[in-house]
Specification:
globular; 28% strand; single chain; five-stranded mixed sheet; Beta Polymerase, domain 2; 6 helices; 30% helix; two-stranded antiparallel sheet; 11 strands; alpha+beta; 197 residues
Length: 197
């Protein structure tokens, strides 16, 4: 079953409407996903947000017609005009930059970042307490399953790289702007580096 899509202009307009009602409760935001990648059709509206007042954001959404509001610790899902929305909350600038990169996607681009990072001696982390590219200090193999590995990093220290442009250049040797990160087409074909390009 294919996921429904919306024209990018409809999704942009819906994002602008929602943001206009809650902007005073937001410190910083970035519209990500297919909108940031300039897709013609998008599956949802994906935002990374540093909030000033999450309680007021959650309180305002029902008053503008948002439905199915499902708040979590770092994620808020809801629909507006039948378009799915996701707010990904960042606690600081580092988390904001890394989440912006991951939530822009596409999935294959983000997965490529993680795979190339390991080839270059890094681990790409984007959850919990670790956000960014961290040097691998050591590798521990599972005694029962030799193929299973755990990469040891020092997440207490700042990562080597965490700004979007720095991470992408470090891994791929050049910066890919969002509109060049569509590495997975609608027919299921993998494009970009993962396909040997």
């Amino acid at each position: 079953m294919t996921r429904p899509t919306w024209p990018i202009n409809d999704a942009r307009e819906a994002a602008s409407e929602v943001l206009s009602h809650i902007i005073e409760y937001i410190d910083r935001f970035e519209v990500c996903g297919g909108i940031r990648r300039c897709q013609v059709q998008v599956h949802d509206v994906d935002l990374v947000i540093m909030e000033k007042d999450r309680f007021m954001i959650n309180s305002m959404l029902p008053t503008i017609g948002a439905r199915s509001i499902n708040p979590g610790e770092n994620l808020l899902r809801f629909t507006y005009k039948d378009i799915p929305f996701e707010f990904n909350y960042a606690r600081n600038e580092r988390e904001f930059e890394v989440l912006k990169t991951v939530r822009t996607g596409d999935y294959v681009f983000s997965r490529s970042m993680a795979q190339v990072a390991m080839q270059k001696g890094f681990v790409f982390r984007f959850a919990g307490k670790a956000f960014g590219l961290y040097k691998i200090l050591s590798v521990v193999r599972d005694k029962e399953n030799w193929h299973k590995k755990e990469y040891i990093i020092n997440w207490v220290r700042a990562p080597e790289y965490w700004r979007e442009e720095d991470m992408i250049i470090t891994l791929f040797g050049k910066y890919y702007p969002p509109e060049e990160r569509n590495w997975f087409d609608d027919r299921g074909n993998i494009l970009g580096l993962m396909n040997g390009e």
